[in-house]
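PROTEIN–LIGAND DATA SHEET

This sheet pairs a single protein chain with one bound small molecule, zinc ion, given as SMILES. Inputs appear in the order they were entered. The predicted three-dimensional arrangement of chain and ligand is reported afterwards as a token string under its own label.
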Amino acid sequence: MQVNPAAQLYRLQTLDLNIAKLRARLKQIDDLLGKDEEVVRAAAQRDAASESYKPLHARATDLELEIKTLAEKIAESEAALYSGATKNAKALQELQAEVNALRRQENTLQETLMDVMMQVDNASTAISDAETALTTAQETSVIRQTDLQAEKTKLEGDLSTAETKRKDQVAKIDPAALKIYDTLRPRMKGTPVAVLGPDGCMACHVEQTSIINQQVRMGTKIVYCESCGRILASA
Ligand SMILES: [Zn+2]
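PREDICTION REPORTED AS:
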């Protein structure tokens, strides 16, 4: 059987392109495995929700305490007012005025507390929403990671097969032809071989002379595209 170096190199290029594709996807998978941006984002949102809850809850507790203290004060003043110990009309009037002032203060605090409690409720809802979102993100992540792991295992098998095929293919190729391929490969961005179609080189789309066409069809030696310099293989 006559050896066609360009055809052999073209086959090698196909294998190399496939290997590069498998490696790129494997690298992508490795980057995705173990860290899930959606989970990180959902966790940050949960933490933020929980952070905004804390001061509101503390404020509500403070207000409750203030109201309790005030209620005690009111009780004391009322006790003094109704005990009968004070007979002086002006002193009684003053006591009554004090009780009224304290009650107004109590009302204001109660209103503020109601407002803060509503904010506490909203913040609490935000926390449970964020927690639900986080759980969903974690569950989705587990499924995605399992899928990625399965894909990785499959691709590793494919890569191993492709590398064996490449080794077998390299063994068939004349070392001089292989050297040309290896030299051209980085310069041609991984495609040092182009198919010569009816309209010319299929990489740069430039028509070739009839002599080149003939030489490529014969396939006994390496012929280059006159325009882009790639090795030409017959279709
Ligand atoms: Zn070309």
